[in-house]
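Bench notes, afternoon.
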Amino acid sequence: MTRLTSDDIKGVPQDEMDLDSRLLSMTGKTVRGIAFEGAGLEDTGQDLSRFRVAVVPITSGLGVIGGFAASVDAIVRRLGFDSHVTAGTDVKGFAEAVADDVDMVMMADDDMFIAYNTRNGEQTDNAYGTAIGYAVALRNAAGGLEGRDVLVIGAGFVGGNAVRILRDMGANVSVTDIVLAKAEAVAERHGVAVLEDVNHAFSSFDLILNAAPASFPGELMREGAVISTPGVPHYFDEEGRRKARAIIHDPLEIGTAVMAVNSIRRLL
């Protein structure tokens, strides 16, 4: 998991990005709509307030990211869940959540961010939630992916998941990474094409899921490109933003929303 900073997420609790409005204009879906679609469900206005969620701050490793627990809590509340941040941290916080008989526990350390369903023991991790959330956003923004060429940049946990998901959506997927061996391993595992030159690959595709912490100059971008980009740090210059038909990005919300809805999908 990419370790966020407090600056990356400082506007999340108050939704300063106005993400629903931005997503509606690019994909026709809100965060909740993308989360339900990512979980394989239809959003029919289900009342999620009957599901209680506890967000547990974790202090191990490099410690708590300032504002992280509050951000996750705010995201889950916007979906309609009954959520709170535990008073305790780490094991004490988890024990508090279990004693409070919540339906879901959400927590993250330096390596993993999960949503754990206490009713059936299932969990959804952020790499999967982010990958499928951004794949769904790309599919909606592009008007479908069946038979279309899609590039995945980055062959880490999110990129590897995205390759498989996009392939299963019917896209013709290619993958690239600055570490060629990683891209080759993902390509072999999922039966997709591998491209060696990252910059050349970026300039050759109209539909891109960028799962790498990488920035690309606008001069490389194709006119009318649709880019779904969970990678952090995130940056596109003025030329890139002018040329792109859509650049879909947020530091935390889409992946977290998919995790939460996917975690309770069997209970709906």
